[in-house]
Amino acid sequence: MKQIAWEDEQTNFVIEKHKELTVIEIAQQLDRTYNQVNSKIQRLRKTRPMEMDKSKWEVQSKGIFEVPRQTYLTYSQIKKVKYKRNIKYQVELKGDARNKLENQFIGTLVQETKNHITLRCELGYCQSFLKVDLIRGENPIKEVE
Q1: What three-state secondary structure class fits 82?
Q2: What is the fold of 55-143?
Q3: What pTM does this model have?
Q4: Domain limits, the chain
């Protein structure tokens, strides 16, 4: 596939709107693909800092953040969110993770890595979740009793 060069106006639009719009919305307005816009944002983040508007973050109970989807998180921000071992959590399943019968997974935290957490349900099977998805609210998580 032939690469189409980025015009200065398009690059400026990405820089100005990446905090307000999702990658898909930016792609539609620029008549670009999702991958083209996402790659451009990643390259821009390496060459010039693109500040995040932390005022949009909503602190939920138990100190877990919900961050807008279009916000890019650094590893240092992700590692600040800690989950408690042997505590039961409920995760809302969305998209491909959801099956026809249940739209949530309830389990006890058995493992936490730098990018994932693993929960074990009462039936004994485990499911892992990306921390960034939990933080952004794509799969909302909360403690349950």
Answers
A1: coil
A2: SH3 type barrels. (2.30.30)
A3: 0.50
A4: 8-51, 55-143
